[in-house]
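Reminder to self: tokens first, then the designed residues, so the page reads top to bottom the way the pipeline ran.
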């Protein structure tokens, strides 16, 4: 641990000197080849391996993964497609040591985002970090400090920020295109399967360096499927709220025009219909208070009814946002429409979404900022990613500090909150359709937490404040001083 910390301390010290040189050098020679390594290449990382080489002047020079099977496959596929061998790394610290690398893409699970970004900045690399920005609120602050201190370009992978038609439309919304905004609803009405309950202690695949995979989190393995299912364990993931929530809540916050934390959060939810050992809710309602307009968010991972394969919708939308304005309603996700009170479309909001679900436009934006050395050129710098990701963390903190109450008592408990009452009625009906006995079932009633947007903390609330950060497993510790 000491040697690792010392090595990174030394790397950081030399990075500080190196940084100012590269910043000047790159802005002076904007057409230099940009050498990129992607870290974590199973799923989203693979799309980055394939997307970055399409940008003129960018060369992907390596891939890093602590699962040698994943790494081997991706490097082989890359060679077939692009005609050259990538350098392979098992340990991301070797990527940061490599002076031949200019920028890294963090496609690892959520619990690695903060530390990998800080290490990357300390080593003088520019960093494209996938959403959610961080695994907890505190470490996002450390990421921002590191980006600033080492003068690094850090983009967070909330790619819809790079859609020009949404930039333009939300600007119009801020200027009153829909009249005063009454509320914004986020929707992620999806369908997933139970992850099961292993009958014996699972073991990591032989190809995985489990210690490296776990990094800051616990090494206790509780899931049968090693990759992806970590989303449903608090040590590594942030629930569906922190998985697809950053995309949707970012749109909600963008629509409201809120550039700070909300003043309060509340949450209702639970994990229903599945007999498995996932820890996070599969049904979740959230509410965020902003002076401009409240945001609510409905998450469902169960189908319309037991045995069905389809997903629910609200006003015809399963994923996206509904902005309810006094003079019009907007419904959309990548693209959208403004409807009149009868639901008739009066305007379409559409434009170029590029390829790969918008990610290619976002990568291009990152490269543009790397070349200009201006964080202001980024469509989703750490601050933007943090404010939207924080909404996920705040909702999870409300959930995790709450208490179980009977589902049948819910309507009475929230009768003074019309938006939540409506959403809870829809949720209860949906649970009943999925075989939940709503007369006897419990629901986790998250606490309504008051937030100080200036300090980004919960005044006087020790239990909630404790969840603003995590315990880091040494040596994988986000430093107090970046
Ligand atoms: N922007 C988007 O639209 C989008 C879409 C999907 C996923 N994501 C985000 O991307 C991240 C990865 O998601 P995924 O679905 O690809 O997950 P995944 O579990 O399928 O893949 C993660 C990979 O990271 C590797 N990894 C873990 N720890 C590592 C370490 N210390 N060093 C090197 N490699 C390591 C794993 O071995 C695995 O191959 C998540 O944070 C997710 O939220 C973003």
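Designed residues (482 positions):
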């Amino acid at each position: 641990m000491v040697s690792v910390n010392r090595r990174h301390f030394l790397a950081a010290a030399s990075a500080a000197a190196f940084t100012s040189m590269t910043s000047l050098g790159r802005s002076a020679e904007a057409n230099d080849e940009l050498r990129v390594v992607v870290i974590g290449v199973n799923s989203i990382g693979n799309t980055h391996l394939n997307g970055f080489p399409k940008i003129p002047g960018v060369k992907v020079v390596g891939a890093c993964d602590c699962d040698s099977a994943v790494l081997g496959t991706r490097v082989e596929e890359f060679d077939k497609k692009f005609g050259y061998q990538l350098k392979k790394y098992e340990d991301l610290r070797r990527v940061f040591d490599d002076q031949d690398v200019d920028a890294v893409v963090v496609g690892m699970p959520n619990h690695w985002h903060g530390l990998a970004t800080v290490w990357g900045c300390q080593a003088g690399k520019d960093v494209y970090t996938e959403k959610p920005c961080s695994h907890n609120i505190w470490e996002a602050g450390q990421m921002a400090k590191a980006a600033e201190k080492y003068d690094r370009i850090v983009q967070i992978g909330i790619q819809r920020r790079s859609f020009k038609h949404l930039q333009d439309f939300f600007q119009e919304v801020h200027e009153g295109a829909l009249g005063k905004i009454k509320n914004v609803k986020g929707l992620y009405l999806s369908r997933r399967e139970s992850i099961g309950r292993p009958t014996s202690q699972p073991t990591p695949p032989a190809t995985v360096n489990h210690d490296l995979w776990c990094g800051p989190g616990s090494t206790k393995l509780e899931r049968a499927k090693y990759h992806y299912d970590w989303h449903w364990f608090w040590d590594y993931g942030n629930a569906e709220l922190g998985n697809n929530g950053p995309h949707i809540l970012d749109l909600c916050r963008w629509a409201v025009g809120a550039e700070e934390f909300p003043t309060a959060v509340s949450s209702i939810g639970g994990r229903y219909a599945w007999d498995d050992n996932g820890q996070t809710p599969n049904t979740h309602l959230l509410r965020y208070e902003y002076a401009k307009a409240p945001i609510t968010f409905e998450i469902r991972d169960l189908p319309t009814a037991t045995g069905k394969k389809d997903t629910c919708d609200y006003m015809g939308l399963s994923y996206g946002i509904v902005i309810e304005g006094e003079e019009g309603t907007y419904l959309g996700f990548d693209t959208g429409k403004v409807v009149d009170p009868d639901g008739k479309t009066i305007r379409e909001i559409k434009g170029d979404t590029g390829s790969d679900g918008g990610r290619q436009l976002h990568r291009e934006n990152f490269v543009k900022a790397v070349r200009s050395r201006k964080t202001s050129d980024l469509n989703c710098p750490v601050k933007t990613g943090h404010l939207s990701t924080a909404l996920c963390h705040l909702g999870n903190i409300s959930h995790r500090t709450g208490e179980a109450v009977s589902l049948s008592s819910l309507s009475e408990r929230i009768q003074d909150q019309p938006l939540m009452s409506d959403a809870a009625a829809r949720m209860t009906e949906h649970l009943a359709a999925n075989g939940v006995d709503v007369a006897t079932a419990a629901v986790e009633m998250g606490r309504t937490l008051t937030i100080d947007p200036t300090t980004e903390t919960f005044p006087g609330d020790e239990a909630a404040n404790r969840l603003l950060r995590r315990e880091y497993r040494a040596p994988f510790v986000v430093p107090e001083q970046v």
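The mean pLDDT is 94.
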